[in-house]
Amino acid sequence: MSEQQCGIGGRVVVVTGGGAGIGLGIVKVLAQQGARVVMAECNPEGSRTSAALCEQGLDVRFIPCDVGDPASIDALFAEVRSHYPRLDGLVNNAGLTIHGDFLEASLESWERMVNVNLRSVFLCSQHAARMMAGAGGAIVNISSNHAGASSEGFEGYAATKGGITAMTRAMAWSLGKHRIRVNSLSPGLTLTDHIGQLMSDKPELGRFYHALHATQRINQPEDVGQLAAFLLSDASISLTGADLMADNGLSAHLFNRSGI
Known about the structure:
The chain contains 9 helices and 7 strands, in the order αβαβαβαβαβαβαααβ. About 45% of the residues lie in helices and about 15% in strands. A 7-stranded parallel β-sheet has the order 3-2-1-4-5-6-7, sandwiched between helices. It is of the alpha/beta class. It has a domain at about 75-250: 3-Layer(aba) Sandwich (Rossmann fold), CATH 3.40.50.720. Belongs to the short-chain dehydrogenases/reductases (SDR) family. This is Pyridoxal 4-dehydrogenase. Keywords: Oxidoreductase. It comes from Ralstonia flaminis.
């Protein structure tokens, strides 16, 4: 397999929630590797972010989209169809975390997480698969290490991420006959702006976070981007229906190290 075959140069890829955090890390890495990236983002600030990336010579197009709204997803893929002759990949990254006391959790917050985190993966994947069917392509669903083990107050988040991982397995079989591979990618703790601010405000929290991981580090958003690029490329041609755990060994440890 040649280097060109393994890469993603020239491929058209949609990344939902691509304007910040892990999503932006994915967008940057894919574009740096030569992909033509659609940044689907509900925050209007994504327009400035994509423009800044374009000034760096990267091919990034911002399309506003609220994945919690089916009509907005319809509009996203209609615009993708109008701008590009094909679609090669989709990264379902957009997600929402609502953490709180289980006894006080509202139905509204539960439904919001289900719609944003889980329903959107179904709808976006269905749109993308219809565009890729026959020609082939790859879908990467961003799950979480919370799909396998979680913590108090994260019931809705864990449920939706577990659903993503399970749905990925079924989708791999449903779409394999259409030459579409489907995998999930499960990041652990990642240095988003929010996590970075917490660690800056409380240095002891940063030391605690790092000590939880076998490698004494937490993810950078671009780390997740590199793995997404791999799953979108032909270098991962034998992978479908798989979940790639990217949590620096956190979930491999038998005991909770909260006493450190």
